[in-house]
Design a protein that fits this description.
Elements: E1 13-18, E2 28-35, E3 49-56, E4 69-76, E5 97-98, H1 113-117
Antiparallel strand pairs: 1-3, 2-4, 2-5, 3-4
Amino acid sequence: MSALIAEDEIVHEAALVWLEDIGSLDYVRQSLDRLPTRRGRPAYHRDGRMVGYAQLGPGAKPSRSSGTFRRRVFWLLPHDRDTDPAGLYATGAPAEAVDPSTVAPGSKGLKTGRSEGGLRPAGRPQPGAALPG
């Protein structure tokens, strides 16, 4: 969950690969997955779909116990706002969700008016504008 991702856990990110146009997504879910490689498209074993993933630089070290690398994966579930706009997340967002426009390598991203509110009528904060507080 994004609340559990610390910036020091993602310092070795070299790039983010987006598999979809994130401009149309109000939020994406993010998690740290244990993966066998630093780079390349990871296998995906959740419901829904993978939207993107992080690639690690050469300084990233594997876990001593498992030999795996912790990499961020961005994903959406079938009941998320992009496919069910009037559903559970018509307003608000899951705990692990962030506005994809605020995510960068080594930066976990933010919840914004866009990610929490969904619709962007006139007068709403611009995409990527951080929520107060």
